[in-house]
Design brief:
Blueprint (H helix, E strand, L loop, with lengths): L9 H13 L8 H13 L3 H10 L2 H6 L1 H15 L2 H8 L8 H22 L3 E2 H8 L3 H10 L3 E2 L3 E3 L14 H15 L1
Helix pairs in contact: 1-2, 2-3, 2-5, 2-7, 3-5, 5-6, 8-9
Keywords: Cytoplasm, Nucleus, Signalosome
InterPro entries: COP9_CSN8, CSN8_PSD8_EIF3K, PCI_dom
Family: Belongs to the CSN8 family.
């Protein structure tokens, strides 16, 4: 069984791996560092940093450790929003070093898909829902019902979740600047 990863700890893990990359002897860390860092960037949905890491990874590392290429396959599918390919690529067998990260990534992609669907659709065909979630139609129906969505034989009606808005904290200095700006515009 794959041990779950503590998502709150991911930024610290990324920072440590980035430091290992920068401080590596001869400027090239182990393939494990590149592979874990790439997987963690994908977990954070930081596709830009993932792409830059892939581009700066030496070809010799890519050739000698094919798993990093498999992780990047997931990244390419994420970049293109190709959900069926994302899930099929994620369901591969991963090494013990990153299996827990890839399982967490699969769960996160599914959570992001649920959020996207709830915001973008008033009704979605069950076949499309199962593709977005990377599961069978029956499993997709169970997930949808757990979210409080209405499911019939052909369509699912997502329920939009209320947006959480953070109240901005306006300082006295910011309020003063805003007042000066509005006063200037009124003159």
């Amino acid at each position: 069984m794959v041990q779950p990863i503590d998502l709150a700890n991911v930024p610290v893990l990324v920072e440590n791996l980035e430091r290992q990359e920068l401080e590596a002897a001869a400027g090239v860390p182990s393939a494990e560092v590149y592979t874990k860092l790439l997987a963690l960037y994908l977990l954070q949905n930081d596709l830009c940093n993932a792409k830059f890491l892939w581009k700066r990874t030496p070809q010799s590392v890519k050739m000698s450790h094919p798993e990093i290429g498999q992780v990047w396959e997931v990244g390419k599918h994420l970049w293109n929003g190709n959900y069926p390919s994302i899930y099929s690529t994620l369901k591969r067998t991963w090494s013990d070093d990153i299996a827990h990260i890839m399982k967490a990534l699969q769960d996160e992609v599914q959570k992001r898909a649920i959020s996207l669907i709830s915001k973008a659709y008033s009704s979605i065909p069950n076949t499309s829902l199962s593709e977005f979630l990377g599961v069978t139609e029956q499993e997709a129906a169970a997930i949808a019902q757990a979210e409080g969505w209405t499911v019939d034989k052909v369509y699912t009606q997502p329920v939009k979740k209320p947006e959480e808005y953070a109240t901005p904290n306006i300082t006295d200095d910011q309020l003063y600047i805003l007042t000066q700006y509005v006063s200037f515009l009124e003159n």
